[in-house]
Design a protein that fits this description.
The protein has 21 helices and 10 strands. Strand 6 and strand 7 form a beta hairpin. The protein starts with a helix and ends with a helix.
């Protein structure tokens, strides 16, 4: 029997342990090829794809490559740990260490080559569906044609062949460090009982509690200010929860003897104490993967589904212009030409002045001044109560959806410069919300009394801007009108950004979140597969010790079904615990990411959660079946 034949027989003998690794490699190769085929597609040179989408495609290709490297490397190390006794037995029988290295090398290369071949075939077959999905997400007029990309095939083959070659050859370092005496000592060593630290348990609970508390102020400022701190607290709290809080929880259960000693609970939790402590890192990784999948896909799916609603909230006027060169008669002609029926029209002036007040939170000292009458017209359209402003008083308007809505009272004096004159004014309030479409001039506005506004207008030569806002009965048909006005602005060398509208903002959100949704779904599938496979590999590594424990329990008087029931309960807990913790983390993250909607975004998330749960149950049932069969 040659060494290669022996390697193939070993693969067939260990086919159960290789199955999850083999399927995961196929999926990684398939996804890598699909994105490579898109990146090498000739249509990529025709400038029909948004730059943000192309950037995400390259980013996904890099993420898939890193995922393949880390996941396949972990899988191979898991197999080596699981086959320590086999490797030690081969050395006892006289096989030199170099032949053991070559044996493992041929096993890994054979499995990797077969996974590469099947993954490429699967990618070629699924490329048509993949390109149709990309065309639908980007709303392309013509679907992307399917072409067999030899560059993508060569690129995928070269990358994964080098990856399998490097990792397989690198496994010799682990094998060479392992000695027969270490294998025998590890087999005879007694495990120490896990202990926990009260202080570390306290730190875990405090870290998670503080992270959840900081995630509830769903504002743009809160997201930016606390995001990194929240992530660090969740990572620390989750890891300490698995290493310390789990052991403390099981120790607490021992204080309820009627429940702890009921049925198989004593055997179950006695073994689970060691298992949770030993698998803390694995459970931590699976929890983080679950949180990332549910959060990223949930946020992208919600914003994609509610792009139209968000657009209407962020841009309440279907057409807004600043310093429109068209007169009222020309605008009326355009509205009639495009069959747009006006529901409401607002027109007001903005003065651009300079101020010495530093709370404006911008580097530009210029401010936009509007009158009290204009502010009340905007508030009336937004169904808000009017505000009365007296002479020398100022109300600041934060006109953007990223700020929390509401009103703040404050009092302070400052001056504004108009020509050669200075005007002393005083703050009375600051209100936040979306009252008009967001432009550079309308993002932050100061409202003064009508008398003060006339005095400022007559005092100097500061720029005066005319602002128009229209609301239509048929806003979904306004795109040709907005495009026509934008072309007119460009033809007259005016700033195109001074034209805005609800449908443009809706298109912006769709163009932004459709690629993110597309990418997050595929990344989520990778992470889901990684989470399930990592748990499966870990359970399979512990299979020899499970056999011993089942035999020992049988000698103590437990039936075989009861021993298998204990194993199944532990598998259920190992699958369920990261899912539950990851779900709670993702709910907190969803609340943190809802600052644009200002309301919970759990509707789309619930459907995603159910889908993830069903996939997890399928993976659990398959894992349980494989483990019990091998047990």
């Amino acid at each position: 029997m040659t060494l290669k034949t022996f390697a193939y027989k070993n693969i067939h003998h260990h086919r159960t342990s290789y199955s999850a690794y083999f399927l995961s490699c196929i999926f990684a190769v398939c996804v890598f090829y699909l994105y490579a085929a898109l990146l090498f597609h000739p249509m990529l040179k025709k400038d029909i794809f948004p730059d943000s989408f192309l950037f995400l495609m390259y980013l996904v290709e890099i993420i898939v490559a890193l995922f393949a490297f880390l996941f396949i490397g972990y899988s191979q190390s898991a197999f080596l740990r699981n086959r320590k006794q086999d490797i030690g037995l081969l050395q006892i029988l006289g096989m030199p260490i170099r032949q053991v290295v070559r044996l493992i090398f041929w096993e890994n290369i054979s499995v990797g080559a077969l996974a590469l071949l099947i993954g490429l075939l699967t990618g070629l077959i699924g490329s048509k569906f993949f390109f149709l999905v990309v065309s639908f997400v980007l709303q392309l007029s013509d679907p992307i044609p399917v072409q067999m990309s030899f560059k993508a095939i060569l690129f995928t083959t070269g990358f994964f062949f080098c990856l399998f070659l490097i990792l397989s050859w690198g496994s010799r370092l682990t094998i060479q460090k392992q000695s027969i005496s270490e294998v025998l000592r590890e087999k005879a060593q007694e495990k120490r009982q896990p202990i926990f630290s009260v202080w570390l348990v306290f730190i875990s609970l405090v870290s998670i509690s503080v992270a959840y508390y900081l995630s509830f102020p769903s504002s743009f400022v809160g997201v930016i200010k606390h995001l990194i701190f929240i992530i660090l607290l969740l990572l620390i709290g989750t890891y300490l929860g698995y290493t310390q809080l789990s052991v403390a929880g099981i120790s607490l259960l021992e204080r309820f003897p009627k429940w702890f000693y009921c049925g198989i609970n004593m055997f179950l939790f006695s073994q689970l104490r060691y298992r949770l402590k030993d698998n803390a890192r694995i459970l931590f990784l699976v929890t983080i993967f679950t949180s990332i999948v549910l959060t990223s896909v949930g946020v992208s799916l919600t914003y994609y589904n509610e792009a139209d609603i968000v657009g209407e909230e962020q841009a309440p006027y279907h057409l807004t212009t600043i310093d429109n060169p068209l007169n009222s008669k020309q605008i009326e002609q355009k509205l009639q030409a495009y069959r747009m029926k006006t529901k409401a029209h607002i027109q007001f002036l903005i003065l651009a002045l300079k101020t010495d007040d530093r709370r404006k939170n911008v580097n530009n000292p210029n401010v936009s001044i509007i009158s009290n009458g204009t502010l009340n017209s905007l508030l009336k359209q937004a169904k808000k109560k009017p505000i009365s402003i007296h002479a020398k008083q100022v109300v600041q308007i934060w006109n953007s959806g990223v700020w929390e809505s509401g009103e703040q009272k404050q009092a302070d004096s400052f001056t504004v410069q108009q020509g050669k004159q200075s005007f002393s004014l005083q703050w009375i309030a600051s209100i936040k919300g979306v009252f008009f479409n967001e432009h550079d001039l309308t993002r932050v506005m100061w409202a003064v009394s009508d008398q003060t506004f006339r005095e400022l207008q007559q005092a100097g030569q500061s720029p005066v801007h005319m602002v128009d806002g229209y609301q239509f009965f048929n806003p979904k048909q306004s795109m040709p009108l907005l495009e026509s006005i934008q072309r007119y602005y460009q033809a007259h060398h005016l700033a195109g950004k001074d034209v805005s509208g609800t449908i443009l903002v809706q298109k912006f959100f769709r163009d932004l979140f459709s690629p993110l949704l597309f990418v997050s779904v595929f990344i989520g599938m990778l992470f889901f597969l990684a989470a399930g496979s990592i748990l499966y590999f870990r359970l399979y590594i512990e299979l020899p010790s499970e056999r011993k424990q089942v035999k020992l329990l049988h000698k103590l008087g437990l039936q075989q079904k009861q021993g298998e029931k204990i194993v199944v309960r532990q598998i259920q807990i190992l699958f369920m615990l990261p899912f539950v913790v990851g779900t709670i983390h993702s709910l907190a993250a969803l609340n943190l990411c809802s600052f644009l909607l200002h309301r919970p975004i759990y509707t789309s998330y619930f459907g995603l959660w159910v889908s993830y749960l069903l996939l997890g149950i399928i993976y659990y049932v398959w894992t349980k079946r494989q483990i019990l069969r091998a047990l």
